């Protein structure tokens, strides 16, 4: 495309013998030489052909900002009246006849349009600079459309730049927060001990609810957050080693506590469905009664446990549905939960 | 023989059906399968979809574009040279590990679950007449006593179908029962409880009606005729699905069946939600009312299924499989099976899958340790 533009430009401008050096450098693909010559003396009165060679070299070297300045200089130098007339017509929303304007001017507008586009594509972060450059990009896109010059290509390139701008916007991390309600099940360990040193393990399986929320930062692809909730529920326990102690059993033992921790997830669909991990700690208080048999006591495991869990979330506008499945770190028990939430 | 059929019902794991592909916008199974209710051989379009939308392109050079992939989706990597015959080969095997990590109870085994040869004859505009034969290897469950005489090679399905119009078709032969969401997991309570799982095919006459925004299946069945007559579950079923919000499906099913010993009435309601770009949620809840000949084991069981799929990139699906089962709704005891999994379509003919199952029992009078199991599965088709 750049080559075609160069060819067109040269064809449309009159040749100038003083551009011989630039021409030779371009042929030798020594774009640095052309660029350096220009940078060493930008104010020199270059011929049109020289400026076109310089523009070509700058574009080859991806110096698009300098190229826009050069092309504006070319427009102002060679087509001030046509340029003003065109802008005025567009401003007044008048119909523009592309045939009234020279092809060379249209090529210069094309150069400006694509150079501003390439400048925008070079941005890695959204900023006011992007907005500023986009104003010019949009302006030259509009001019080319009015002139009906390379319409299909203008539209396609415009789409590419819009997609990049959207990408830059999407990359920005935004603060989000939500409340949630989960139905959960978690386990606690304990043991029965007797005076002679014997013991039998117990598992308490609880179920209940966890009410809380999360807060964090997310962009279009990743989400980093901290979540926490108050849990309340109940569970049962039974000893299965009847040789050790007969019939130790309890039901509906109340349990309460908190679950909190950091998490990270990857957003995998346009509806913001996501998958990730959480590393919560669960602090759960639950009191087992001492066995009625004399000589036996209960030793409960730590109330504080750490969990590594897999987390997934499906978003329905502001509402979401989530699941979590975790394994206690260095323990055998598991935790799981499923519930709903709403962003606010 | 009776024992084998009963065990087959409860031991099998997987079939070839992916209801979660509603996440790719496919609300009806008929898009990709010859059987309008899914499962069994893929049609030409289904094979192209599996090549160009489902399977990863990791193994292909960049020069292989989607069009080439589509052409390579035929049997033995070739575009079919005629329209009336299709052949397919399907293999599925997995390593199952029960009680992993237990020094005493760990049990690991490789099971060749399925090796099928499939022949499809199809004629007429839009394949209005189809004839499907799916014959292959299905292992006897491990519980079957050694020395039992029973062939491990059998027809999984054989039927003919005729679509009188694009919206209405009749199918007759050995096929799956029409009931609920046909999920991949055939140990799913939602499949086992109504007896609609991998080896519960019946000789049936099925009507399929496809509306603009709804789909209806009505089936009458005489049981599996290869079983002895007293065991054959005879009955009828019906399933209705409706498209909601253009991309989701909600539905309901009912099935009544009985043999000389057992009467079952199953009913369920389900939803399949399209979360876009391949992500989806499947949910089903239902009950099976069971009446036995002598009334000794009359119960109503309740089951629920929630399957969630997330597709981070092409070829890969992360899933959660959450199931609930209460064997008798008059009792408070119930079981929850929960497991994450990953499904990876390495290329258009190769599916690798890992599933972890954690089963937890809830009872007011007891508390037991969870049981664990994992599966590492390979699925190849040509």
Summarize this structure briefly.
The complex is a heterodimer of chains A (344) and B (382). Helices cover 38% and strands 36% of the residues of chain A. Chain A is of the alpha+beta class and 344 residues long.
Write the layout of secondary structure elements.
The complex is a heterodimer of chains A (344) and B (382).
Chain A: H1 2-12, H2 20-27, H3 31-40, H4 48-60, H5 64-78, H6 80-91, H7 103-122, H8 128-147, H9 151-171, E1 174-194, E2 199-218, E3 222-238, E4 249-267, E5 274-278, E6 281-285, E7 296-300, E8 304-316, E9 319-328, E10 334-343
Chain B: H1 2-11, H2 44-54, H3 66-71, E1 85-98, E2 107-123, E3 129-137, E4 153-165, E5 168-175, H4 189-192, E6 202-210, E7 214-221, E8 234-244, E9 248-258, E10 262-274, E11 280-292, E12 299-313, E13 316-326, E14 334-347, E15 350-362, E16 371-381
Antiparallel strand pairs in B: 1-2, 1-16, 2-3, 3-4, 4-5, 5-6, 6-7, 7-8, 8-9, 9-10, 10-11, 11-12, 12-13, 13-14, 14-15, 15-16
CATH superfamily of chain B: Porin
Assign a percent range to the helix content of chain A.
25-40%
Mean pLDDT of chain A: 88
Instruction: Provide the CATH top-level class of chain B.
Output: Mainly Beta
**CATH fold-type name of chain B:** Porin
Rg of chain B: 20 Å
Biggest sheet record of chain A? 10 strands, antiparallel
Span between termini of chain B: 32 Å
- Name the helix and strand elements of chain A from N-terminus to C-terminus, one letter apiece: HHHHHHHHHEEEEEEEEEE
Pairing-aware structural class of the strands and helices of chain A?
alpha+beta
- What is the oligomer described by this structure? heterodimer
Q: Please provide the ordered H/E string of secondary-structure elements of chain B.
A: HHHEEEEEHEEEEEEEEEEE
User: Helix segment count of chain A?
Assistant: 9
Commentary on this structure:
- The complex is a heterodimer of chains A (about 350) and B (about 375).
- Chain A is an alpha+beta fold and about 350 residues long.
- Chain A has two domains: about 1-170, no CATH class; about 175-345, Beta Barrel (Porin), CATH 2.40.160.
- In chain A, about 40% of the residues lie in helices and about 35% in strands.
- Chain A is built from nine helices and ten strands.
- Chain A has helices at about 1-10, 20-25, 30-40, 50-60, 65-80, 80-90, 105-120, 130-145, 150-170, and strands spanning about 175-195, 200-220, 220-240, 250-265, 275-280, 280-285, 295-300, 305-315, 320-330, 335-344.
- In chain A, strands 1, 2, 3, 4, 5, 6, 7, 8, 9 and 10 form a ten-stranded antiparallel sheet that branches.
- In chain A, helix 5 (about 65-80) runs antiparallel to helix 7 (about 105-120).
- Chain A is rod-shaped, with a radius of gyration of 35 Å.
- The model of chain A is unreliable at about 10-15 (pLDDT under 50).
- By secondary structure, chain B is mainly beta.
- Chain B has a single domain, classed as Porin.
- Helix content of chain B is about 10%, strand content about 50%.
- Chain B has a 16-stranded antiparallel barrel.
- In chain B, a hairpin with a 3-residue loop joins strand 9 and strand 10 (about 260-275).
- The radius of gyration of chain B is 20 Å and the shape is globular.
- Chain B starts with a helix and ends with a strand.
- At the A-B interface, strand 2, strand 3, strand 4, strand 8 and strand 9 of A face strand 12, strand 13, strand 14 and strand 15 of B.
